[in-house]
Amino acid sequence: MSHNHSHGNCNDESHDHDHGIPEGEGPRDILYARIDRPNVIALNSESGNGPEVIKPWDQRLDEAVFLESDADDQMIIRVPFTGSVKLRALLLKAGPADQTPAKVSLYSNVDHLDFSDIAGLKPTQEFNVAQGREVGEYHVMSAKFPSVTSITLFFPASQGADTTRVYYVGFLGQWSEKRTEPIVTVYESKPNLADHEKIQGLQSNFSAPPT
Q1: Which family does it belong to (predicted)?
Q2: Which listed CATH number (3.90.180.10, 3.40.605.10, 3.50.50.60, 2.60.120.470) goes with 32-177?
Q3: pLDDT tens digits, residue range 31-89?
């Protein structure tokens, strides 16, 4: 079978194949199962706290569940992943009509971003959002999103309504496991080694002069 679990080093033609995603989850490189869904957060949302719009592929057109902005037409959605993602595209269904966001700004690997922070921060990439009942696919510049552990979406304004509404957020890309343990192990072993050498050196110097 074509299940290659070699830590993201898939150099063959099937590099974006299904990494154990269940049947019916849509495109082969859909990242629904790689989103840390319980920790998705929405700011300035009246109708939910975030995870509601991270839906399985077969529910992408469902309009019964959505996020709608509260105090004004701005909204932030922060989406963490369970590993490192090479992002290819944002999938977005919003609206209807003038409740569609005018644009969406994407921020890669920025933790705890809120409305006061966002004014001085340049987005990694942004898109104008088209009105429509289908899911829009917004292809990112992959070189700007090579190793994404979280993505923050900022909707700065609606297309005329008092509130912004979002039905579905999804992503396409390649997922690999976070490789933090080997890095931590190497980091810890180097200082220990240096400390041992230093102590031995000092001891030999002190014991050298005659009494």
Answers
A1: Belongs to the PITHD1 family.
A2: 2.60.120.470
A3: 999 999 999 999 999 989 999 999 999 999 999 999 999 999 999 999 999 999 999 99
